[in-house]
Write a structure and sequence with these properties.
The complex is a heterodimer of chains A (629) and B (300). In chain A, strand 19 and strand 20 form a beta hairpin. In chain A, the strands form eight sheets. In chain A, strands 28-27-26-25-30 form a five-stranded mixed beta sheet, with no helix packed on it. A four-stranded antiparallel beta sheet of chain A has the order 1-2-3-4, with no helix packed on it. A four-stranded antiparallel beta sheet of chain A has the order 5-6-7-8, with no helix packed on it. Chain A has eleven helices and 33 strands. With 629 residues, chain A is of the alpha+beta class. Chain B is α/β, with parallel strands linked by helices and 300 residues long. Chain B folds into two domains: 210 residues, P-loop containing nucleotide triphosphate hydrolases (Rossmann fold); 57 residues, Alpha-Beta Plaits (2-Layer Sandwich). In chain B, the strands form three sheets. In chain B, strands 6-7-8-3-9-10 form a six-stranded mixed beta sheet, with helices on both faces. Chain B has a four-stranded antiparallel beta sheet with strand order 2-1-4-5, with helices on one face. In chain B, strand 7, helix 6 and strand 8 form a beta-alpha-beta unit. In chain B, helix 4 packs antiparallel against helix 5. The chains are: A alpha+beta (629), B alpha/beta (300).
Chain lengths: 629, 300
């Protein structure tokens, strides 16, 4: 350490001219305020801005220059033997020179920055809007990085060795490796984890660069080319180890099993026992994993490289799932994959291109797949052959929302909700309905509805014939093809009102004491009320074939799931301490506007108070514990 | 082997390669303690590469070097406390002033002798406040020498120390500095082109050619076995007298030869040979021997 400080002192002693230049720079802002024309600006603003920019530019430029010359120049001018003919170790030489360079840059920064800063700290704070310690930390780190980078480049380029080509290849490989490490984490929405891993890799790289300089001089000594060889050897081997550790960690994070989830939820298909299981995994911060999950067997198939459930859709028959695997994250463009929902199934690439903003849905028999792009292009594909069957462009509309479903495998119905064209009232909304015929390849505008409210929402009955439209405070049953209003219904909201298979409209409401009642508005105009129970929240979980409705709710202390026989107006089962999965009533990708009607034999994903996941049979009440989060 | 018997420098089978070019080819030598050892060779013979590797400044491609009984690559830092080095090219930072260089070295060497440095600098007539980069080539060499001497070294390594020195300084270097050091028992290892200067002070010389040590022996013995012989007869007579020739030149009926295994008895036999007339022998300078060994492809 003493020798390192001796070298640092020596280096500093010969840099007096640099400090003099810094003093000259420090004076410049004070001269600048006297320049004609500058009086139009606030004097303190000119001083602090010019001082900050000059100090930053000078210091960072100096850091790069010192980095490139502190070792590299002595090596190329054959002066490193001066140090190596003295009782000085390579690390002492390196750290001495590094310390001197850091002190030089920090000193010059302080000389230029502080006079103008001290003229008006408040003005500086207003201009830059950053805390001084944070600003200094960032500048310090940048300085260190530039110094080390300059040193590496200086050593490598001055050696004039063909090894440089290998260095460039290693750099590219390291870049790809870094992307390979963080990309799977980003795909899993692990923003915090990605940031931490990136910071750890960055920190490790800085340590490697610092130690690399010491290693280089310890092993390469006064030999210019050997310095390059040793630096490259240390740098790339160490970085390979760092990246391998990072890669192993990233692989460990990604290779998560359903049992590793600490918080999860399930989206079920309308038929069968499969669905998505997704959530955050243990010891993996904010990483989210996605599985195709069989509630009957508890088998989970991890879906890699997918931005979780937002990019996934299930077919109504429960036989397939589709998901988007992004290839270009910046543009948000990728390829659709289709995975059969069965034990040990493997996903298949479809060669169907889609974007992050695309909407897609299967036909009920999962033989067709429709993709809607944000620019209004809608295309229907044959799943077996991945062939585009028909494509059409919907009228362009900004900020519209689009939903669609296959009314039959050959007929795609599209709902477009958009601000009205040419309207001077931005709150005016229009619902337009189109049908795209696969056989005739024709796009037909089948109906529209004009709204004068800010809010227009709709769902469609399970058979696809009727729609339940919420227009502000009003609700209507409409023809799902033409948008013709069939009948008004009592106002409600999307969460607590639904269309049922028998044509009824079911509405959940609670009094002030949180006593919930299910009101059935039947097609013949009659009404029936079914008392459910007392709890803070209650909503529809799903409708089962045979006139059954599953409701689920929770209090702060209690949770319950009910099976209601709405055909006969009675609650047939109350399952205490069980809450159906949040998304059990819909497909998450939310493209298909139809309400699902599930097979009553199908298990429903449900949780108890301890957050254990069960496959619960609504008809018998039997439950099987699958996972404990 | 006790410390006194350990050679000051022992290089065994050292090779240095720069890519495909072989600069030093399996060189071996030993520098006895207390001796003045001169490594001679033409430009590019590999002397400086050998020196740098011997001092642990550069890793050899093969072989190893021991200095003062220690591996010079592994223990360079510790060894440099005991070794003074004057590099071939002036390597001190050009921005530093001479007195700053002295202060820098003083903080590194426990045996630093300020007085020695000042005296030497005074004798060279160099101002302490002069910037090293502003000095002439010879003055830089002199400052480097003064710095090396002030560390009180057990071994001093001088890589071409006369390069850039004027005649007076060169004479002073050999006759005063090196002779004085030798008298005090300091081992001196030098490489040089100044063969005349070395001739008066070296105990032992080695000659490098094409990266190889082609000759390594006591200077007196070397000079004793090399002679120039002239006689009026065909060169065959030399073979008959069992002289090994380093160089043979014929003119008319006469022959001039440099022999590398001269002894008086054999020459007397040659001289009294009936076929040979007017044979005479003359001693050779180190320079002549060097040329014979390296310059004209002679075989020693």
């Amino acid at each position: 350490m003493t020798h390192a400080l001796t070298i640092a002192r020596r280096d500093l002693a010969e840099r007096s001219s640099v400090f003099i230049a810094a003093v000259a720079m420090a004076v410049l802002p004070f001269i600048l305020v006297l320049v004609p024309g500058m009086q139009t600006f606030k004097r303190t603003d000119v001083l602090t801005t010019a001082g900050s920019l000059l100090s930053l530019g000078f210091s960072l430029g100096l850091a790069l220059l010192l980095g490139a010359t502190m070792i590299g120049r002595d090596l190329s001018e054959k002066r490193m033997s001066f140090y190596f003919s003295k009782p000085l170790s390579g690390p002492a030489i390196w750290f001495g020179k590094l310390i001197a360079a850091l002190i030089t840059v920090a000193g010059c920064f302080a000389i230029i920055f502080f006079p103008s800063y001290l003229s008006s700290p408040v003005s500086w704070q207003n201009s830059w809007n950053v805390d001084l310690p944070i600003a200094f930390s960032l500048i310090g780190i940048t300085t260190l990085v530039l110094l080390l980078l300059g040193h590496v480049l200086g050593t490598m380029f001055r050696s004039k060795s063909p090894l440089l080509a290998l260095d460039l290849a290693a750099l590219v490989a390291a870049g790809f490796a870094f992307v390979g490490i963080v990309r799977p984490l980003l795909v899993g929405y692990a923003v915090e984890l990605t940031r931490n891993v990136s910071l750890a890799l960055f920190g490790a790289t800085i340590v490697v660069l610092i130690l690399g300089g010491a290693w280089q001089l310890a092993k390469g000594r006064a030999d210019r080319r050997q310095n390059h060889v040793e630096l490259s050897r240390f740098l790339w081997i160490s970085l390979a180890i760092v990246l391998a550790i990072g890669g192993a960690y990233s692989a460990w994070v990604v290779h998560v099993g359903p049992g590793d989830l600490v918080k999860g939820d399930v989206v079920q298909a309308e038929q069968g026992s499969w669905g998505f299981l997704f959530g955050r995994a243990n010891h993996r911060m904010d990483y989210h994993a996605l599985f195709a999950y069989d509630l009957a067997s508890g088998e989970g198939v991890r879906v890699d490289g997918v931005q979780s459930w937002f990019s996934s859709g299930l077919s109504r028959d429960g036989r397939r799932m589709a998901y988007l695997k992004l290839e270009d994250y910046t543009a948000g463009v990728g390829e659709l994959y289709v995975m059969p929902l069965s034990s040990g199934a493997k996903a298949e690439a479809t060669r169907i291109s889609a974007t992050r903003s695309s909407a897609y849905t299967f036909s009920d028999d999962s033989s067709r797949l429709a993709v809607m792009e944000p620019d209004g292009i809608v295309t229907a594909y044959d799943v077996a052959s991945n062939r585009a069957l028909v494509s059409a462009k919907l009228p362009a509309a900004a900020h519209n929302s689009r939903r669609c479903f296959f009314a039959t495998p050959d007929l795609l119905r599209v709902y477009v909700t958009a601000p009205q064209f040419g309207s001077v009232k931005p709150e005016e909304h229009t619902l337009d309905i189109y049908e795209l015929d696969v056989r005739t390849r024709g796009l037909q505008h089948t109906g529209s509805y004009r709204s004068v409210t800010k809010s227009l929402q709709m769902t469609v009955s399970s058979d696809g014939n009727r729609g339940l439209l919420f227009d502000g405070d009003h609700a209507f049953i409409i023809d799902a093809r033409t948008a013709q209003v069939i009948a008004p219904v009592p106002a409600g909201n999307l969460m607590h009102t639904t269309l049922l298979a028998d044509g009824s409209v079911a509405k959940l409401a609670a009094n002030d004491a949180h006593d919930w009642t299910l009101t059935m508005h039947k097609p013949d105009g009659s009404e029936q009320q079914i008392a459910i129970g007392r709890m803070k929240q209650l909503h529809f979980a799903r409708e089962l074939r045979g006139g059954l409705l599953v409701l689920t709710g929770a209090d702060q202390s209690e949770r319950s799931t009910y099976v209601v026989d709405y055909a006969h107006g009675s609650v047939v089962r109350r399952e205490p301490d069980l809450r159906a999965a949040s998304y059990s009533w819909m497909q998450w990708n939310n493209t298909d506007p139809r309400r699902a009607i599930a097979d009553p034999q199908q298990p429903i994903a449900a949780y108890d108070k301890a957050n254990a996941l069960y496959a619960w049979q609504p008809l018998t009440g039997a439950k099987k514990e699958l996972l404990r989060f | 082997m006790n410390q006194a018997e350990t050679p000051a420098i022992r290089i065994a089978g050292m090779s240095v390669r720069y890519g495909r070019r072989v600069a030093v080819d399996a060189a071996s030598l030993e520098v006895p303690r207390g001796s003045v050892y001169a490594l001679l060779g033409r430009n590019g013979a590999g002397k400086s590469s050998l020196v740098r590797c011997a001092l642990g400044q550069q890793r050899a491609s093969g072989g190893h070097a021991e200095v003062l009984g220690e591996d010079s690559w592994k223990h360079r830092t510790r060894l440099m406390e005991r070794i003074g080095v004057v590099a071939e090219e002036a390597d001190a930072p050009p921005e530093m002033r001479v007195h700053q260089l002295a202060r820098f070295c003083a903080s590194l060497y426990s045996r630093w002798d300020e007085k020695t440095f000042d005296v030497r600098l005074g004798r060279f007539g160099i101002a302490p406040r002069a910037r090293f980069g502003d000095l002439s080539k010879g003055q830089k060499k002199q400052v480097s020498l003064a710095l090396a001497l002030a560390t009180g070294p057990e071994l001093i390594v001088l890589d071409d120390p006369t390069l850039g020195l004027d005649v007076v300084a060169r004479k002073s270097l050999f006759e005063e500095v090196i002779a004085d050091l030798a008298d005090r028992g300091t081992t001196i290892f030098l490489t040089t082109h100044d063969l005349a200067g070395v001739e008066g002070i070296a105990d032992r010389v080695a000659i490098m050619s094409g990266g190889r040590i082609v000759l390594d022996e006591e200077l007196e013995a070397l000079k004793g076995r090399f002679r120039r012989i002239r006689f009026a007869a065909q060169p065959l007579a030399l073979e008959a007298a069992s002289f090994r020739t380093a160089m043979v030149r014929r003119w008319g009926t006469g022959t001039e030869a440099i022999v590398s295994n001269y002894d008086d008895l054999t020459f007397e036999r040659l001289r009294t040979n009936a076929t040979i007339q007017s044979a005479d022998v003359s001693a050779m300078s180190l320079e002549e021997i060097f040329i014979a060994v390296t310059g004209e492809g002679g075989n020693s």
